[in-house]
Write a structure and sequence with these properties.
This protein is of the alpha/beta class. Strand 5, helix 5 and strand 6 form a beta-alpha-beta unit. Helix 4 packs parallel to helix 5, helix 6 packs across helix 7 and helix 7 packs across helix 10.
Length: 347
C-alpha cells in the first residue's frame, strides 16, 4: 500500500507539530490542513499541502485519515463527522471534553468499524515500552505503590484562548490524563479515586492544582500531583525530552515500587536489593537499555499502520478509560468522596 494521505484538523501548537511530522514522515504524506486562521494557510503553504477552512471541505478532498487537534470541546463533533464519513481518525487527548461525548465517539467508531487511535502518544515512547516490559516481566516483583509528578509553569499567554480557562480544560484533563493513561499501562486498571483540587492561584473556572490518590485493581496504591502553576523540574514534558520546546532536566517524574525493586521514569533507573529483598540489604541500581525516538513521530507511523489495517496500540476505549479516571478525579475533588470505577466502562 502506498503511503496514506493524512490530514490535520486544527493548526494550533499540537496541530502544527502533527502536520510537520506527517510532512517529514516516510510512511505517510500530508494531505491538507483544515483551520480557518491565516496562520493555518501560511503553514499549509510552508509544508506544501492544501488548506481548507473547515472539516467538511477537508473530508470532501478524500483523505485516508485525519488527525483531530482542535480544542477539547470540539473533539466529539469532529470525530463523529469523520466516523460518519468512514475516515480513520487519531484524536488528540483527551478523547473528548465530557464522558458522554467520549462514549458517543467509542460507540460510533465500534458500530461503524472505523479505525481509531487515541492520541496518548507517550505509549509510543521507547522508554515507556521498556518500562512496561520490565514491570510486566516481573523485574520489580508485584507492584505495590506508584507516584507521579506533573508540575508545570504555564505562562500567562498560554491562557489567552478562552477555552483554556473554561470547563473542558484545566491541567487534570489537559495534562494529568496523559499520566493517568501511563499509570494504567504500567500498574493496571484503576478502580477507585480520591482527590482535592484548587484554583487559588489562577482563579479560572477550572483547577490549577490537584492531588490524587488511586487504587488499582491489583490492590496497589498510587498518588499523583498536578499543577500548571508550579515551578519545578518534575513533569513528563521536562524529564522525557520528547519535545525540544521544553528544556530538558535530568530528573524523573514517576516512581513505581514493587516487592522486589523499584523503577524511575523516564530515566529507567531500576533499583533492587543485593540479595533477598530487605531494608538491611544494600540497593543496587542499573539503567535499563533503550533507544530514544520522538513518540509523536512514532505515533504517526503507527497511525499509518492502523489505516492499513493494524490493531491500534492505544484504542478509543483506552482513551475513554483515561478520561473516565480524569473525570472521576474532578468529581472526587468536588464531592470529597471516593469515586469507584469499573474496569471497562461501557459506552
Amino acid at each position: 500500500m502506498s503511503a496514506p494521505a493524512i490530514a490535520v484538523l486544527g493548526a494550533g501548537r499540537i496541530g502544527r507539530r502533527h502536520a510537520e511530522l506527517i510532512a517529514a514522515s516516510g510512511t505517510a504524506r500530508l494531505a491538507g490542513i483544515a483551520d480557518p486562521s491565516p496562520q493555518a494557510g501560511a503553514l499549509a503553504a510552508e509544508l506544501g499541502c492544501a488548506h481548507h477552512d473547515g472539516l467538511a471541505a477537508l473530508l470532501e478532498a478524500g483523505p485516508d485519515g485525519v488527525v483531530i487537534a482542535t480544542p477539547n470541546g470540539m473533539h466529539a463533533e469532529n470525530a463523529l463527522d469523520c466516523i460518519a464519513a468512514g475516515v480513520p481518525v487519531l484524536v488528540e487527548k483527551p478523547l473528548a471534553a465530557t464522558l458522554e461525548d467520549a462514549r458517543r465517539i467509542v460507540t460510533a467508531a465500534e458500530a461503524a468499524g472505523v479505525p481509531m487511535l487515541a492520541g496518548h502518544h507517550r505509549r509510543h515512547n521507547p522508554r515507556v515500552r521498556a518500562a512496561a516490559e520490565a514491570i510486566g516481566s516481573g523485574r520489580i516483583g508485584r507492584v505495590v505503590a506508584a507516584h507521579g509528578f506533573t508540575w508545570l509553569m504555564k505562562p500567562a499567554d498560554y491562557f489567552a484562548p478562552d477555552w483554556r480557562r473554561a470547563e473542558g480544560a484545566g491541567p487534570v484533563l489537559t495534562n494529568l490524563v496523559h499520566d493517568i493513561d501511563l499509570m494504567r499501562l504500567l500498574c493496571g486498571d484503576i478502580v477507585a479515586v480520591q482527590a482535592q483540587a484548587s484554583d487559588a492561584v489562577r482563579g479560572h473556572a477550572v483547577e490549577d492544582s490537584a492531588v490524587v490518590t488511586l487504587r488499582f485493581a491489583s490492590g496497589a496504591l498510587g498518588t499523583m500531583t498536578v499543577s500548571d502553576t508550579a515551578a519545578g523540574p518534575w513533569s513528563w514534558e521536562l524529564t522525557a525530552a520528547e519535545n525540544p520546546e521544553y528544556p530538558a532536566t535530568d530528573q524523573s517524574c514517576y516512581r513505581i515500587a514493587g516487592t522486589e525493586g523499584a523503577l524511575e521514569l523516564p530515566n529507567l533507573r531500576l533499583w533492587r536489593h543485593d540479595g533477598a529483598p530487605s531494608w538491611f540489604a544494600a540497593l543496587e541500581v542499573e539503567t535499563l537499555e533503550t533507544s530514544d525516538a520522538d513518540p509523536l513521530a512514532l505515533q504517526i507511523e503507527h497511525f499509518a499502520q492502523v489505516i492499513a489495517g493494524a490493531a491500534p496500540r492505544v484504542t478509543a476505549r483506552d482513551g475513554l478509560m483515561a478520561l473516565e479516571v480524569a473525570s472521576a478525579v474532578r468529581r472526587a475533588a468536588r464531592s470529597g468522596t471516593t469515586i469507584t470505577l469499573t474496569k471497562d466502562p461501557a459506552p
